[in-house]
Amino acid sequence: MIAQLKIVGQAYTADLTQPLDISIRLGFTGDNPNCFYAPLAEVAPVVAGDFVGDTQRGGLVNFKTIKVNPHGNGTHTECVGHIATELFFLPDCLAQYHHAAHLVSVYPQRLDNGDRVITR
Question: Where are the alpha helices (DSSP H) in the chain?
């Protein structure tokens, strides 16, 4: 489906059958985006007695427990919920599903002391 949009007087065309995934896949064994000293994301098979929820370890099924910090592990969308005293969830705040956005990716520079900073 081709959508024709006008945003602040500028015409745009979007092919909604060809979405562009701008996320970074969250993995559990490699180098992932992580911020503010958040613990790394973890995944582990459920183990109960002789049951092991991992087919690579002889289990009949994969049955995993995942620990993730949505703000600190991986990519995420910034919103007012980071600073508000009440709870906000994006699906509750957005009445429409297509929005104009400006994507900004930043890459920290490592300092000699090991810290990473975002510079102008």
Answer: 90-93
Report the SS3 class of residue 85. coil
The yes-or-no verdict on residue 69 having pLDDT over 80 is: yes
How far is it, in rounded angstroms, from Cα 69 to Cα 35?
Answer: 10
Task: Convert the pLDDT of each residue in 99-112 to its tens digit.
Answer: 777 888 888 888 99
| C-alpha atoms less than 13 angstroms from C-alpha of 5 in its C-beta half-sphere | 13
Residue 73 burial (10 A CB sphere; 0-12, 13-18, 19+) = buried
Residues whose CB falls within 8 Å of the CB of residue 67, separated by 6 or more in sequence, listed in order = 39, 41, 42, 43
Mean pLDDT of 11-25: 86
Tell me the C-alpha to C-alpha distance, in Å, between residue 54 and each of 40, 42, 61, 64: 21, 15, 6, 8
Q: Which phi and psi angles does 8 have, rounded to 5°?
A: 50, 50
**Whose CA is closest to 73, among 32, 30, 107, 21?**
32
pLDDT band at 50 (very low <50, low <70, confident <90, very high): very high
